[in-house]
Amino acid sequence: MKADAVFEGGGVRGVAFIGAVQAMEEANVEWQRLAGTSAGAVIAALLAAGYKSREIMDWFHAVDATKLQGRTWVNRIPLIGNLLAVTMHLGMYKNDHLASMVDSLLFEKGIQTFADLPDDKLKIVASDISKGQLLILPDHLHRYGLAPKDVKISTAVKMSAAVPFFFRPVIWKSQEQAKSYILDGGLLSNFPVWIFDTNGVPRFPTFGFHFVREEIISDAVIPTPIHLFTNIFRTMLQAHDLRYLKEETRDRTIQIPTADIDATDFDLSDEALEFLFQSGYVSAKSFLAKWDFERHKAIRMENNRKGLVK
Q: Which residue ranges does the UniProt annotation give for the motif DGA/G (predicted)?
């Protein structure tokens, strides 16, 4: 079966997507187009380059997750280090390590820029907070006077995964040297399952991969401004997980439980990683057992008739 895939953001929880993708591969699903936000952008980029779930999982096991935080000497200053980092750089940590790893993996497949992939194969979602606009790469590169050959996919991933307050924004200059500050795509669209939709009946389905949880969990004590900022963003991300899915969206979405694991939990135990992988795998297996493309097309046609799908 041919299908498109859209992965939402979710930090290290993205390992659950690898389990879900493995279940899809076992069902002979062939990815045509892929899109993602934040951690979902990493998975989408690697799949678009031709990696399989097992290869991605092997890479993930080899990653030192603590390095993803990109700590510098400033972060090691007791009590005020993180606050100083936010004040100086608008984010606590650097996000260069992730970009470097993704770049290396893509290079092994002979891919660096969006021009190295077929047209429309990959879309990465970020947020241009200078312009107040959703940024879909490579679709919106023309806004900056750039072409697909001008932008590395790893740079787009870095942008999409720049969680506010945790990571520094990516400062990007257009051809006219105008600065834009780019952050996590989840600010404006954490689950862009609509990204490949058209008014017509789809030739093949778009499957969404979405995290779910039962309640919002936050810190009871907020002793510093940094704790306040991070708690605000954690709460926002958890609210994304709890968001109601309308019928047309729910019908094509693999909903993956993540218990109390947050998007900003960088240093997960092996047990937690295995739980996430299995949660994704089992959720996708269960979804496929009930999936009915003809029913989905009927829902889409009805929504088109009512003007609900644009």
A: 184-186
